[in-house]
Give the backbone structure.
Amino acid sequence: MLSALQKANLHLNLFGFFKVPLIWLCRPKILQLDDEKVVVKIPLRRRTRNHLNSMYFGTLAVGADVAGGFMAMNKADQRGGKVSLAFKGVSAEFLKRPEADVYFTCTQGDEIDKMLDTTFATGERVNQAVRIVATCPSLHGDEPMAEFDLVLSLKAKS
């Protein structure tokens, strides 16, 4: 029997392989997933690094996307509902070169719950920024390498 985390990783891998191959190519792995927090790791390897041997900008965007979006999709599935999910905006600040595996953390489970409550109750699209912080624990502990604010857009599917 698979644990909840193993099921989440299987779902992410299948989603990436069949729907968004770039996610699959980056090989993200969910390390923690609960009501409040998701932590996603993307390894620094040949496919995910740039010419400076740090994590490529596009890979960082994939990690932020997965951390921000997977929690919302998982929470909707737990409620038995389906949502249309998109990101309507992004702002990012790159603070330091990530020269090792990168962990993407989103701790806005309560805000995402409120968004889901609203869209399931009204059927209207709900937009709100969620913050994702990227770190390299093996080199710099909890010091942020990058911070992302993604405008998450959710709408209940009928």
Q: What stands out?
A: The chain has a mean pLDDT of 96.
